[in-house]
Specification:
Helices cover 51% and strands 13% of the residues. Strand 9 and strand 10 form a beta hairpin. The chain is an alpha/beta fold.
C-alpha cells in the first residue's frame, strides 16, 4: 500500500486548481487500489476526491457492478460519485478501441461537470509493458513504443496515470492488505483480445526467458522513447513554422534540408492541419508525402484520409 500511496501523493502534490480529483474505477485491483490511496491522501492534501465508474454495458450484470462500485465509493467518503452508462456498439474501430473511446469521453464529461482538477487512471507498470509489446508487434514507431504518458490532456481535462511505476502485484497486495475484493474482468483473460494474449502468454514467457526485470525494462524503454519523441516533436514544430510559404503550402527546399526523423514529423503534423483524421493517417500516407520531397519524379498527388489531395508544384507542397 505504501508504494501505491507514494505514487498517488506525487501525482496530487502541486496539482493546480481547487476542484476535486476524480478516480476512474472499474472495481478491478489496479483502480481499486488507486481509489483507496486517493481517498486516504486527498483530504490530507486539502483536496476532495470523487470517483467515476463507467458501465460499458457489454456484459451481463454490468450495471449492478457499476452500482456496487459507486456504493462502495460513497461509503469511503468520495464526493462526487457517478456510475455512468455509455453506449459502445456503433462506434468506429474494434471493440477495445470503441470501449476505450466511450470511457474516456464519459470521464472527460464528468470532469467538466464537476470542474475536476484531474482524472486519475489506474494503469500500472505491467500495463505499460504490455502496451510497448503491442506497439512493437504492430510495427509502431517511437511514438507507439513510448507507451502511455503519465499525463495527457483530453479536451482540456488532465488525465494522470500515477501508477505507471507500480507493479500490478503491488496493487493486488494493496487490495489484500485493505480487505478489498477486486472484480475480475473476464475481458482481461479472453484470448479474443490481443492484450489478453500478451498478458496471459507473451509477457510471462518473456519473464521466464529473460528474468523478472523485463517488465520494468520495457516500461523504462517507454519513458526513454517518450522523452526522445517529445524533443523531436519540439524540433518538428519549429521546422514546420520555418517551412511555411507566404503564398501557402510548405517549402520543398526547407523540408529537404531536415533530418528524416524531423521531416516526417513535420509532414504528419501538416497533414493533420489539413484535416486528415489522426486515426486514419498512417505511415504509408506520410511516406508518400515524403516522396514528394525526396523522390520527386513528377508523380501525381497524394490522397490523404478524407479525400484530401496534396501535390507538389514547383518547390512547394500544396493542398
Amino acid at each position: 500500500m505504501a508504494a501505491v500511496r507514494l505514487a498517488v501523493r506525487r501525482a496530487l502534490t502541486g496539482l493546480p486548481g481547487a476542484g476535486p480529483v476524480l478516480v476512474a474505477c472499474s472495481g478491478g485491483a489496479d483502480s481499486l487500489a488507486l481509489a483507496a490511496a486517493t481517498a486516504f491522501l486527498a483530504p490530507r492534501l486539502g483536496r476532495r476526491a470523487g470517483l467515476v465508474t463507467v458501465d460499458h454495458g457489454l456484459q451481463p450484470g454490468s450495471a449492478e457492478r457499476a452500482g456496487a462500485v459507486a456504493a462502495w465509493a460513497r461509503e469511503q467518503g468520495f464526493d462526487p460519485v457517478e456510475a455512468v452508462p455509455v453506449r459502445v456498439p456503433g462506434r468506429p474501430g474494434g471493440p477495445e478501441a470503441a470501449a476505450r473511446a466511450a470511457r474516456y469521453e464519459a470521464l472527460a464529461d464528468a470532469a467538466r461537470r464537476h470542474d475536476a482538477a484531474a482524472v486519475l487512471l489506474g494503469h500500472t507498470r505491467d500495463d505499460q509493458a504490455e502496451t510497448v509489446l503491442l506497439a512493437l508487434a504492430r510495427g509502431g514507431g517511437p511514438r507507439g513504443l513510448s507507451g502511455m504518458p503519465p499525463r495527457r490532456d483530453l479536451a482540456g481535462v488532465p488525465l494522470l496515470r500515477p501508477l505507471l511505476d507500480v507493479a500490478r502485484a503491488e496493487t493486488r497486495a494493496a487490495c489484500a492488505a485493505l480487505g478489498l475484493r477486486p472484480w475480475q474482468d473476464p475481458h482481461n483473460t479472453d484470448p479474443a483480445y490481443a492484450r489478453s494474449r500478451v498478458r496471459a502468454d507473451l509477457l510471462p514467457a518473456l519473464v521466464d526467458a529473460l528474468g523478472p526485470g523485463v517488465v520494468a525494462n520495457l516500461a523504462r524503454t517507454a519513458r526513454l522513447l517518450a522523452a526522445d519523441t517529445a524533443a523531436l516533436d519540439d524540433l518538428a514544430g519549429a521546422a514546420l513554422a520555418d517551412a511555411r510559404c507566404a503564398e501557402g503550402g510548405l517549402s520543398v527546399d526547407a523540408l529537404a534540408a531536415l533530418p528524416a526523423a524531423v521531416r516526417t514529423r513535420v509532414l504528419h503534423a501538416w497533414a493533420r492541419e489539413l484535416g486528415a483524421a489522426p486515426a486514419a493517417l498512417s505511415q504509408r500516407h506520410v511516406a508518400a508525402l515524403d516522396a514528394l520531397v525526396t523522390d520527386w519524379h513528377g508523380q501525381g498527388p497524394v490522397h490523404l484520409p478524407g479525400g484530401l489531395p496534396v501535390r507538389r508544384r514547383a518547390n512547394r507542397l500544396i493542398r
